[in-house]
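Researcher: Structure prediction, please.
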Amino acid sequence: MKHLNSQKFLAVVLFFGFLVSCSESENPAQTNSSTATAETEEELVARAQGIHDRVITLDTHADISTANFTATRNYTQDLDTQVNLPKMIAGGLDVAWFIVYTGQDSLDDAGYAAAYANAIDKFDAIHRLAEEIAPDQIELAYSSADVRRIDAAGKKVAMIGIENAYPVGLDLSRIEEFYERGGRYMSLAHNGHSQFSDSQTGEPTNDYLHGGLSEMGRQAIAEMNRLGIMVDVSHPSKDSIMQSVELSRAPVIASHSSARALTDHTRNLDDEMLYAIRDNDGVVQTTAFNSYVNEERRSFLAEGRARLEEEIAASLDLEILSSAEIEQLSSTDRSEYEAKIAELDSQLFPRLRAEVNGMAPAATVSDFIDHIDYIVDLIGLEHVGISSDFDGGGGIEGWNDASETFNVTLELVRRGYTEEQISQLWSGNLLRVLDDVQRIATQIQAEG
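Model: Predicted structure follows.
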């Protein structure tokens, strides 16, 4: 799509050269091969900065620690976090979706209770930032209209995504509670199978719990459609994703995923999944997570991790079991197994940092935009957006925190995207889906 105007302009240059100056004056923000050769680096950067300042930049995934949302330590300060208000201001990031994330644990009453408490703590922290700590600098948005109003007022915008529906427990009424607290998207699983959905973590061993969605998962999607919560398919298994797309009456999103055709990670979406999201009129928020956007880095890290896991497991006399095999263990054997897994992890992660991560090839903004290009070419620009996964493992060379957000726009300009297209990628497409989801929710509620 982005190449069409360049081709038209070249034809004009070849056959109607006298119109060149007119074409440039009609659409000065649009890049084409003629202006690109005439434009200096300084002029290109200035043009990109102008675009960056005018569009609404929106990142759908920034994790949080509630320790950073207190009266004495909070996002008004330039903390050692990838996202905070000073970094958002410095980089021109207008909208941050702060994430109510809960790691997967046991599917029992104790696990659900702890998960719910964790979720409420994070909801409260986000509200505290916007309503008590810095209401003059940032405001919570519940709709696209809110986003545009708050941005026009000169404030930063906070929105809330829910990563893992595990805190809902077995009480589906909590989905409405989470909506009332400001949650506007929710994934049904994270790293590990939940009561609602299988996770992509089951893919390497084909180890699944539900065969996609559970019956509760299907009910949860219907409830999210009724309320106006976007269904997020970034962490569930492929079967779960395909079933979710088929079931949902509203468009879905992948809040932070990239293209598997370029980087073969289970967190990325293959072409079939991308086509399904297109046909659902949803959007894929391409994510700047280094091992999701650079195949050489991903394979280096995977091979290094596998080698260390095997070495440490052998030293502990530990055989790694599947979820199904763990379920068959007695309570005593399971406790012993979990203790050994904890010991493996305690040895693994420091060695990964020391022996593997630092030697892996770097992932760059250029790698990231390669994924945007690929998905745009495959399913259309209107189905593509941008996310970082900052403070949750995300970050690449050139966009390693919110202060470097301009570099994404700059690379998009270098590749020939127009201001209108960049605006769609940064926020327009995601906000269009949010509008559609909320409109369909109103229709469902009217049906009774």
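Model: DSSP finds 18 helices and nine strands in the chain.
Researcher: Thanks, that helps.
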